[in-house]
């Protein structure tokens, strides 16, 4: 009678876990898509212009997904490497998430994804929202300059007509689309009249997503074609008057894909040529440094929400002008840091003496995090300890030990299929082109395979099937619950560090990925536990009937 009641209780528990996991997964996904910057409704005010421009025109070319290592291959991108010899260049670093929409916004605003107010994860064109924070286009328009942009249709949603005087946008991503983009931009370059022009080339990213990734020969072929288009763009410029920037928004992992915290997706090329540029290789820079450097060249104000620093070390800037730029930058940094501190209701940390907005923002975020983190840590430690103690005192026997072994075999089997056999990585970069749906299908397939294999091993090793229907069902529930306990550890850790969902700051993206995928696994393991208990009961009944205990 006790065992039967235990089985009924186990079924109810697994149903609740499956429903809870499903609800939590959807809440997590909805919250990351709904995330908005704390500065969304109250961006800092722009400062004063920096004075006389150093260039009559700035042309910014973004080669989507171009990896730094690819850009340095002279046989693949000969023109870009030639441009390095006459310009200033460095390795550029970005921050996760390594998706295009937040990265483009970082390049244009000088603000990292946590505060630049772009969607952290790429959304469909119809859902792309205009920039709410100050950008190089906004500062150019305030200075009375004409601006133009040619590229993917997302740009047309980010940069509204009031911030651009000309635009060409395409849904295409391949070489033909890039040629259309450049052909549309050439009259702006040859005819002049535009002081800020942005050109976005997409075919390298397309090769990574649709043609095998950076290890496929088609990747280098796409980079070579993009290099030819760069040469065409540069040929229309006068480097005594025009400044040319060539950058990338993110890299891609070897198999293709981006979006996560993988180091290779967070390293990009940076090349700048034009009037006042000091040629040579420079120490590494940050992606947020692009926007303020463009502002210096155009003589506009620094983008108000920017966290980067103008790359004056790469420019021939007079001492007096350097002092003016430094003073304006200090004022701007204080304004954005103060705006952030107000937005999250945190007083400036007295221990912070660094003048950068980023240092103050990190300190403010850590201060608020600490107030929210310690209660979640207590919950994390308590739940892990209570469940672990409950499992350990449940029943000390060889059969229970084998169920533990089965749960461990599940974890090994799932990760073997996920990471080794299919080559996935533990980040958003591994999400298939079909998006969250595709990831859910993959996780479901791998969970099904791993659960069935581990369950069979646990049943055989524990001998539960030979002891009758009820014992076999009970052992299956035990296996499922122990497996769910192991799956809960990354979930509880994610909760302890980042909370139940994304709220006022972006999460740790490695933990967020594990949190998300482990919840999906938990939902499926709970359902499979109920199904397999029925299978186990049937097999146990047949074995008991065929081989009755003497």
Describe the structure.
Helix content is 56%, strand content 9%. The chain has 550 residues and is α/β, with parallel strands linked by helices. It folds into two domains: 2-36 and 365-546, no CATH class; 58-329, Alkaline Phosphatase, subunit A. Strands 1, 2, 3, 4, 5, 6, 7, 8 and 9 form a nine-stranded mixed beta sheet that branches. Strand 3 (147-152), helix 7 and strand 4 (166-170) form a beta-alpha-beta unit. The two termini are 22 Å apart.
Question: The biggest beta sheet, please?
Answer: 9 strands, mixed
H-E order: HEHHEHHHEHEHEHHEEEEHHHHHHH
Please state the CA-atom Rg, rounded to the nearest Å. Answer: 28 Å
Q: Provide the number of structural domains.
A: 2
Strand content: 5-15%
CATH architecture descriptor of the largest domain = 3-Layer(aba) Sandwich
Describe what is shown at a glance.
With 550 residues, the chain is α/β, with parallel strands linked by helices. The chain contains 17 helices and nine strands.
What tags apply to this protein structure?
alpha/beta, Alkaline Phosphatase, subunit A, 550 residues
Topology at a glance:
Layout: H1 2-34, E1 57-63, H2 68-71, H3 78-86, E2 88-93, H4 100-109, H5 113-116, H6 136-142, E3 147-152, H7 153-158, E4 166-170, H8 175-191, E5 196-201, H9 203-210, H10 217-234, E6 242-247, E7 267-273, E8 280-281, E9 285-286, H11 290-298, H12 319-343, H13 357-394, H14 398-421, H15 435-462, H16 469-498, H17 509-546
Parallel strand pairs: 1-5, 1-6, 2-8, 2-9, 3-4, 3-5
Antiparallel strand pairs: 2-7, 6-7
Helix pairs in contact: 1-16, 1-17, 8-10, 9-10, 12-13, 13-16, 14-15, 14-16, 15-16, 15-17, 16-17
């Amino acid at each position: 009678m006790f065992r039967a009641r235990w089985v009924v209780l186990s079924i109810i528990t697994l149903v609740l876990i499956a429903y809870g996991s499903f609800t939590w997964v959807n809440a997590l996904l909805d919250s990351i898509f709904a995330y908005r910057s704390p500065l969304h409704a109250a961006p800092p005010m722009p400062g004063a212009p920096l004075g006389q421009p150093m260039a009559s025109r700035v042309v910014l070319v973004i080669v989507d997904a171009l990896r730094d290592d690819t850009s340095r291959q002279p046989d693949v991108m000969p023109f870009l490497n030639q441009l390095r010899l006459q310009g200033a260049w460095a390795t550029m670093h970005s921050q996760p998430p390594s998706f295009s929409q937040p990265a483009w916004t970082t390049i244009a605003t000088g603000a990292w994804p946590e505060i630049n107010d772009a969607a952290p994860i790429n959304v469909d064109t119809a859902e792309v929202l205009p920039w709410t924070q100050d950008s190089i286009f906004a500062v150019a328009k305030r200075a009375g300059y004409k601006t133009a942009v040619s590229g993917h249709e997302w740009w047309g949603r980010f940069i509204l007509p009031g911030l651009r005087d000309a635009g060409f946008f395409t849904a295409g991503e391949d070489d033909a689309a890039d040629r259309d983009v450049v052909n549309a931009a050439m009259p702006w370059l040859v005819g002049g009249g535009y002081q800020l022009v942005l050109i976005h080339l997409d075919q390298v990213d397309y090769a990574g997503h649709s043609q095998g990734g950076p290890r496929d020969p088609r990747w280098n072929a796409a980079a070579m074609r993009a290099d030819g288009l760069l040469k065409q763009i540069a040929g229309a410029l006068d480097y005594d008057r025009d400044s040319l920037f060539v950058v990338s928004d993110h890299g891609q992992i070897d198999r293709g894909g981006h979006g996560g915290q993988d180091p290779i997706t967070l390293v990009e090329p940076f090349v700048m040529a034009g009037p006042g540029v000091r040629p040579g290789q420079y120490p590494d820079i940050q992606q947020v440094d692009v926007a303020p450097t463009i502002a210096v060249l155009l003589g506009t104000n620094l983008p108000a929400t920017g966290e980067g620093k103008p790359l004056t070390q790469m420019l021939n800037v007079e001492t007096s002008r350097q002092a003016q730029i430094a003073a304006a930058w200090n004022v701007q940094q204080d304004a954005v840091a103060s705006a952030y501190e107000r937005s999250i209701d945190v007083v400036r940390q007295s221990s912070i003496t660094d003048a950068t907005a980023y240092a103050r923002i990190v300190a403010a975020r850590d201060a608020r995090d600490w107030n929210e983190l310690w209660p979640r840590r207590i919950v994390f430690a308590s739940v892990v300890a209570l469940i672990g103690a409950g499992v350990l005192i449940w029943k000390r026997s060889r059969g229970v030990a084998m169920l533990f072994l089965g749960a461990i075999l599940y974890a090994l089997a799932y990760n073997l299929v996920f990471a080794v056999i299919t080559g996935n990585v533990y980040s958003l970069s591994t999400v298939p082109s079909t998006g969250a749906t595709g990831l859910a299908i993959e996780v479901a397939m791998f969970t099904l395979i791993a659960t069935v294999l581990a369950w069979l091993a646990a049943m055989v090793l524990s001998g539960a099937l030979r002891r009758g229907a009820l014992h076999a069902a009970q052992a299956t529930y035990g296996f499922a619950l122990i497996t769910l306990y192991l799956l809960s550890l990354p979930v509880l850790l994610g909760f302890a560090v980042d909370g139940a969902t994304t709220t006022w700051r972006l999460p740790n993206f490695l933990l967020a990925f594990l949190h998300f995928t482990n919840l999906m696994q938990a939902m499926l393991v709970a359902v499979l536990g109920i199904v397999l208990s029925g299978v186990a009961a049937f097999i146990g009944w047949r074995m008991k009937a065929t081989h009755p205990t003497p």
